Amino acid sequence: MLNLSQVLAFGLICLAMVLTPGPNMIYLISRSICQGKMAGFISLGGVAVGFIFYMLCASFGITALIVAVPYAYDSIRIAGAIYLLWLAWKALRPNAAPIFNVKNLTVDSPFKLFVMGFLTNLLNPKIAIMYLSLLPQFIHPQQGSVLLQSIELGIIQIIVSVSVNALIVLSAGSIALFLQKKPFWANIQRWFMGTVLAGLAIRILLEHKR
Hints:
It is built from eight helices and no strands.
């Protein structure tokens, strides 16, 4: 079972990751603005199924890898920290891309909306790295089943990501307009997100081998 520190630390990473601009955010915002909130929620349903797919694949794969391969944990730990530092740099660098980079999309059927949401998430490298490189950092074999801990962490990630994305779908238009008119707050968000990601990366790199 997970302890409170694991839950809070991993939840913070999930929050920082979901607030980092990426394919899921851009697609959901664009779809919600171009076709309405219902289309955004249908697309979010596909994204959620993509999260579940990643969670199950990664949970079984991580369990086998950590048990079978020496030094697998340290390799994954370092790779995950480097990726977090890269995301932090993307957020903090000069002339970083706008948070709400809206694209014009054609009107699609509910089935296509769902499938496109699923495929957008499935092909999102940020989510793959989240599960394969970051999730194992918070697994403690001495606390019980690695598989069970992986699934619990995956559920936390899904709850955080779906909740935040649902709020984004609901308020996509107004938030996008606000941030376009108030670049100061967009910069505050970028610096907060980049600082959190960099801090988490340093924490992971300094962590002693378990």
